Amino acid sequence: KFVVRSNEGKEILRMKIKFNRAEPRLWIHGHTHDSCDYKYGETRVVCNPFGYPGVEENPAFIRHLVINAAL
Hints:
alpha+beta, 5 strands, 1 helix
């Protein structure tokens, strides 16, 4: 039995279920504080948050990031 105790954990579980069903080639998301660019199976997962201007900016933010999402 799998028990998820946090809202974040539940969101991760929902995301994994969506990945396994749809197997998208690209998944771009937000609402994190850290940048990421990795593969989950055959899906490229990308997040490039700026942060909060003048308060808590993300030093790993790539201002000119362009992702080719052509089908």
